[in-house]
Design a protein that fits this description.
The structure is a single chain. The protein has two domains: about 70 residues, Helix Hairpins; about 40 residues. The protein has four helices and no strands. Helix 2 runs antiparallel to helix 3. The longest helix is centred in the C-terminal third of the chain and has 46 residues.
């Protein structure tokens, strides 16, 4: 499966659009034949649907500017995971400290109210 996506990523946008059109036309023909009872091409329909999804995915990646070289993508994923773990670790420490602060403030407030002399 990975090879198919890499092959599609190697194509330019016009070739991808052409392949997408051909896959859609062929899928239409096969579905029509299937409904008429002329073929049992269910496997081919599924393959075409997956191919169409791959092409659309690569097009969307290019729109978003996320298209990276296949060799770089593994490094990018590893770097993103490491950055996410570091961010979680940074957020966890202040959150624990912040959770302790309200308890300390409540204790200090209780001490000050108990130390006030009564008016009278």
């Amino acid at each position: 499966m990975k090879e198919n996506a890499d092959k599609i990523r190697a194509l330019d946008s016009t070739e991808m659009a052409k392949q997408l059109r051909e896959a859609e036309e062929q899928s239409f023909r096969l579905r029509f034949q299937l409904s008429m009872g002329q073929t049992d091409g269910l496997r081919k329909i599924r393959q075409l649907r997956k191919e169409r999804a791959r092409i659309l995915t690569v097009q969307r990646e290019r729109e978003l500017g996320q298209s990276a070289a296949p060799a770089d993508s593994a490094k990018t994923v590893t770097a993103k995971k490491a950055a996410a773990k570091a961010a979680v670790a940074k957020r966890a420490t202040p959150a624990k400290a912040a959770a302790k602060k309200p308890a300390a403030k409540k204790a200090a407030a209780a001490k000050t109210t108990s130390q006030k002399p009564a008016k009278g």
